[in-house]
Design a protein that fits this description.
Blueprint (H helix, E strand, L loop, with lengths): L11 H39 L2 E2 L7 E2 L3 H8 L1 H32 L6 H9 L6 H11 L6 H8 L13 H8 L5 H12 L3 H9 L4 H12 L1 H16 L3 H6 L18 H4 L19
Antiparallel strand pairs: 1-2
């Protein structure tokens, strides 16, 4: 292949401009590189190194290989927390994605005051986790909670929402409070669907359900995938609600992965000097 540079050589001025543009590009990129290196890459690499070490903040890290990971695998408390987190994630993701889509379908309608309703449904998702946890502790209170009030109103017996059978599902029901985030993203996708598709389907005699399954769902499938991934990530990071409302109980029924203490006092006897039970985030029972 003939190189065009032989026939159209770049001038010195063009070379200087190209170098200047490259320097400006890296100069504007430099703040991001510094921030990423200090606040993201460095902590990630440090955590990865410490995961292969025995470290107690007072003495230098001691490399132990895969011993820490082996301790977690054989520890029954960690397996319980993983089970709880997976069940919670599946329930929460299905619930908030379904509820968020239903609300978005209602909020996409062109009626007077729709902007107010959109704000009302979205605002709960931005509230602080601690305040929401205390709010739902009152809502699901066995004696004077709002949920049991309505249950008794229709003639049924109140539920102990925080017993071993209901505690995890209570947190799943509570997660509906955060459906405003997926709803907003669904709403953006629904508003970008061309109206011509629905008009053509109407002319062909398609009903509401056929439009929904053959137009709406395919057109927002990237949005569904995005919400699915982000919801799973958020579900695996749950901590505040369970820590405030149940502290991982009863009997570890709501012990999530982020609440699991290091299994050093049983699985790793040599690490007992490095960490005490009082330094763990919660007090748990086996």
């Amino acid at each position: 292949m003939i190189k065009l540079k032989k026939f159209f050589p770049r001038s010195k001025k063009a070379n200087r401009m190209a170098r200047r543009e490259s320097m400006e590009f890296y100069l504007f990129l430099l703040p991001w590189i510094i921030g990423f290196s200090l606040f993201y890459a460095s902590p990630i690499l440090t955590s990865l190194y410490l995961s292969f070490s025995e470290y107690n903040l007072l003495s230098p890290p001691k490399f132990v290989g895969l011993e820490n990971y082996r301790n977690f695998i054989v520890d029954p408390l960690f397996r319980q927390s993983l089970k709880v987190t997976v069940i919670y994630s599946l329930g929460r993701v299905f619930l908030i994605l379904s509820v968020g889509l239903i609300i978005a379908l209602l909020m996409v309608q062109k009626i007077r005051g729709i902007l107010v309703f959109r704000a009302v449904f979205y605002l709960p998702s931005v509230l602080a986790g601690v305040s929401v946890a205390f709010l739902f502790m009152w809502v699901f209170s066995t004696e004077y909670g709002l949920a049991n009030y309505f249950i008794r109103l229709i003639g049924f017996k109140g539920i102990d929402w925080f017993n071993i059978e209901w505690a995890l599902w209570t947190l799943v029901l509570m997660s509906v409070w955060t459906a405003g985030g997926p709803m907003l993203i669904y709403l953006a996708g629904l508003m970008n669907i061309p109206t011509q598709l629905y008009e053509a389907a109407t002319l062909d005699g398609a009903g509401i359900w056929r439009k929904f399954w053959h137009i709406t769902i395919p057109m927002i499938s990237p949005i569904i995938l995005f919400n699915l991934v982000m919801s799973f990530i958020g579900s695996f990071q749950v901590f505040t609600q369970a820590y405030i409302m149940t502290e991982g109980g009863p009997a570890n029924a709501t012990l999530f992965a982020r609440m699991t203490p290091l299994p050093t006092w049983q699985s790793c006897p040599t690490c007992d000097k490095a960490i005490s039970r009082q330094s763990l985030p919660i007090e748990v029972t086996r």
